[in-house]
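job 3f2a | input accepted
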Amino acid sequence: MKVIYKITYPNGKIYIGKDVTDNINYFGSADSRLIQKDFTRDDRKDFVIRKQTLRESDTASDAEVNRQVEYIRHYQSNDAAVGYINGRNLRGVEGLSPTYREPPRFTSNSKLTYLIIQETGNPMGSPKRT
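job 3f2a | predicted structure (130 res):
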């Protein structure tokens, strides 16, 4: 099972990731140094992290699983005020850079995608299994 997921930390910041092995214990590759800066020693004594499946599929290709980028854009998790996506996580991902605050320039196709996201509130519709 291939999964695109969202991790929510106690401070409300998020991480969007993918897992092609469906490992229940995998929580992504968010930068631990960034997370560590946001929590005191006392905060760490009682710490709950939520993992939500946004999309899952038995038959998705790797290219389809790479659609996690659409979720990163939708949730703006590459904005340091919102999430823990950093430059290391985004290497080679076209159109994304860490801590952007303004929406990227749209081509006609991406503008349509953006409008669909804006209308539905989710780049892929409801969480679903294919």
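job 3f2a | Residues 61 and 103 are 28 Å apart (CA to CA).
job 3f2a | closed
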